[in-house]
Design goal:
Helix content: 25-40%
Number of domains: 3
Distance between the termini: 90 Å
Number of strands: 10
Order of helices and strands: HHHHEEEEEEEEEE
Shape: elongated
Radius of gyration: 33 Å
Largest sheet: 5 strands, antiparallel
Structural class: alpha+beta
Number of helices: 4
Length: about 200
Amino acid sequence: MVKRERRELHRQECRCHTIPRGPVAQTLLSVLHRQECRCPRADPRGYSLLEVVVAIAVFGAFLIIITIVTAEMRGNEKRYPINFMAHPEVSSVMARMRKDIFDTTYYPAEFQTYKQTPQTLILYTLKQTGAGTTVVWDFSTSGEVHRKEFNGQQLAIEWVAHGLPSFAISSYSLSTGQDAVRVSAIDDQKRLAIDEIFVPRPHA
């Protein structure tokens, strides 16, 4: 009785072999059921040595990549203690500033009431349309960053970010003689949170 129930169970579970009724078919079916319905495995001989080696190599490559990425992330965490995912405002400031500096043609010494200082960055940048505009980055307010874009002498756009570390701006000259901008920031625990150099692209 138990064998009959087991045979019926194997007949219901194994759907990969469709064998018609008959003595030969019944013999083949009993052999298949005796092997516990191993139909998904096409090759009964198993895997070759080459297949095993390739699988181990691919798995090892993934482990190496994960190890390298993890080490770089931990290194960045030690170097830059700010969690950019937890502070998206910092990422927004850095992305906008990178784009402005990348499109900069020159750095005016002053504009209206603003002057180039470690807390103020004045840029003359080009838009996608080719028109020029003056951008002022103001870091003088603690915990805030103000970006002001002027068309001529008129303020066109002002963007403000809150909850930020203390930023500082300084000039940086490359070995090629090109002037770059060094952006650094100190967090509440007086640790260096950001230290990056942005280089403007060449202009014809």
